[in-house]
Amino acid sequence: MDSRVPRMHAIALFLALLLTEPRWVLAEQVLRVGVYENPPKIALDAEQNLPSGILGDLLSEIARYEGWRLEPVPCEWSDCLKGLREGRIDILPDVAESPERRAQFTFHQIPALYSWSQVFAKESTHLNSPLDLAGRRIAVLNGSVQAKYLRSLAEGFGVDIKLEGVSSFREAFELVAAGKAEGAVTNQQYGEYNAHDFGLVQTPLMFQPVKLFYVTPRGQNLGVLQRIDERLGEWKNEADSPYYHVLGHWGDHYHEPQIPLDLLWALGVLAALLLSAGVGVAFLRRKVRQKTRDLASNELRLNTIMSNVDAYIYIKGKDFRYQYVNSRVAQLLGMPEEQICGCSDEQFFDADTVERIRSQDQRVLLFGERVVDEVAQRRLDSGEERTHLAVKQPLRDEQGEIVGLVGVSTDITDRKRSEAQIHQLAFYDSLTGLPNRNLLLERLDHALASASRSGVPGAVMFIDLDKFRDLNDSIGHGAGDQLLCLVAERLQLRVREGDTLARFGGDEFVVIIEGLDEVQDQALFQAEHLAEALLELVSEVFEYEGNVYTPTASIGVAMFARQRHTVDDMIKWSELAMYEAKAAGRNSVRFFDPSMQAQVRSRAQLEAGIRRGLERGEFELHYQPQYCEQGDLIGVESLLRWGHPDMGMISPAEFIPVAEASGLIRPLGRWVVEEACRQLVCWSGDSVLGGIPIAVNISAMQIHQDNFVDEILSALNKTGADARRLKLELTESMLVRNVEQTIDKMRRLRKHGVGFSLDDFGTGFSSLSYLKRLPLDQLKIDQSFVRDLLDDANDAAIVRTIVALGESLDLSVIAEGVETHEQRQALLEYGCRYFQGYLFGRPLPAEELLASVRCYS
């Protein structure tokens, strides 16, 4: 008894091994795969000797996971089926289900792909209904379900369709391209993929929506089919699975219709509507041509047919009013047929719809065209909008004169929605709604081409969330998904309109920035500021089911401009820079080019230094004197200087652009105005400087602030300075934008006594139209004209013109940059009476200015 127990266990184990199909057995399995040329669904990759196309790549992915080895068996379609029946082929992709095939082969359960059949023809061949196929030669695959369907269709409509049997879809297209056939029937994927190469287009004739499977010889390889079903069931529910990677790879040519099957069948129903509409068109044609005496009887028969056709059929007169409608039109408009007759479209549809319909009708009634077009129709009563495919052609009398039109319309709204859903799945991320990798790469290619032509810089920012996997592992994938959606929303708040934010995959996002400043230094600064702002947005606290998490990100930036780089280069470089950011401790930004990184670092240090300088009082004003022709002091111009504690005196040309780009020019400008006002008060009792004005340069960012006037008045009130001794210097470039608002602000300050000078006159947007309207006191001749005054006749002519203009407008004119006595003398001869420049004195601190002025006097 005891000795038999181990033996029984061994026998049971042996039987279990025989009755199961262990993975180590499947791992050595070789599958002979039937491959016929039907791209993009199935084709042979000759270089790698593997099945290719959507279904070929998908089977290869499954085989890689299951450990199968695939051996392709090239064959034509009919030979593939024969080889499967005879056992020369183990598995065949791209097989549509039918009762006959169910009897011969074994199918798995979950469809690998969806498709439908469609007729393709040359654009000049009008095939819009089954009746248009009468007498036509149509190429169709031998032994296919399409051939069987067309024979049944021809018999049902009583038309003679000449079917030309072919061994491949390519042969069918070649026959049409060569003029040996007038149409070809293929599946929708092959047709869309190849029609353009043969000069063919889609026709409205669609039929037979089908599910596509892998099949094996009857009763064989059941384990293989079971594993295919398991993989399909798993992968179709994962957005980042090999299934969707394969579809994405073939995305330029085909997109999996991830929609309920009933919508696919709705496409079949719509095709039936088109077929039925063709019947109506045929009867209307016969009605127009009929010359029988029994008109009343035939009309009654025709009305009976029209009322039972599942299409909107109508006749309009030359006055665009309805003369006949069938019951479907009456149902659409919610009125009896007899009430619709005599009415026009204005009584049923909104103005835009009427305009579109009227444009179609005019082409038919005025020019005798046959119109096939889509039109969106919005009802007046309900406001509902539906899209219809309308076929309209003229009705003629016995003399051939156009007396009206007949129209057949079918509702294609559901089909259009399905197409939109397919597009959404192909180009947008299902979780965040952002553009996906496919659309990102397409837009990046366009951005690089645009920058190459224009030379305007842009940037690619590769954003990776730090330690995202830790969040998924600790809180759950639900938290991870919610964080990705939240980060997408936050980033969109900062990305400009016209730029692209995309989800690249997993926890990675990519931003394409276009139209940065043409000056490289400024462009780098803009990119760095935007990247820092994105980091700040990402790092806001995230709460999920009571858990508090602070996300961070690492950002890599790669710049592009005129030099053309590839899409792959830009992605690779920005990703490398992102890894540099992670290596630097995460939650940081790095640029791909080390020299760019150094420039950004320098600009960042300069910006930080300006902030500290304002807090620590490192800035000071120097003053340059201004004199009249008699040698009397008439004013001073304040010029900002920065005495850095470590770097010494820093040039305004170096720090002013940084202040403007960072927005620090606003607090810096406020300080300059207040300091100048304080100096006015200090000098108010001095016998030499007490009555002269101080000129202060104003930036564009300052004057375009809404509170600019209040800031100036606040500085005057705060210091007690005399507004009549404060002169604000503007540049012409400030006046290009918001001219009216600028003039209003100047006038408001002018009422308080503040004066205005137009600096660098003649170098910018010079216009008499605005010049005469500005409340100015003075024009300043730019030093670029003064420098070559004695040698350049053009500069001399410009100076004379500016002086004459100032006199005609009753404005004083002062020349800046005067460095020699010869320049001063020439300016006097041209009529200029006021001067500023090194000839009269360099900019000096306030305490040194008085001694210098007295020395000059």
TrEMBL record:
GO MF terms held by the record: cyclic-guanylate-specific phosphodiesterase activity
Broad class of enzyme this protein falls into: hydrolase
Domain of life: Bacteria
All residue ranges annotated as the PAS domain in the record: 298-368
TM ranges: 263-284
Cited InterPro entries: Biofilm_reg_signaling (IPR052155), EAL_dom (IPR001633), EAL_sf (IPR035919), GGDEF_dom (IPR000160), Nucleotide_cyclase (IPR029787), PAC (IPR001610), PAS (IPR000014), PAS-assoc_C (IPR000700)
Record keywords, A-Z: c-di-GMP, Membrane, Transmembrane, Transmembrane helix
Domain (GGDEF): residue spans on this chain: 456-594
Enzyme Commission identifier(s): 3.1.4.52
SUPFAM superfamilies assigned to the protein according to its UniProt record, in alphabetical order: EAL domain-like, Nucleotide cyclase, Periplasmic binding protein-like II, PYP-like sensor domain (PAS domain)
Keyword NAD: no
Pfam (any one): PAS_4
Cited SMART domains: EAL, GGDEF, PAC, PBPb
All residue ranges annotated as the EAL domain in the record: 603-857
Domain PAC, chain residue ranges per copy: 371-424
Protein name: cyclic-guanylate-specific phosphodiesterase
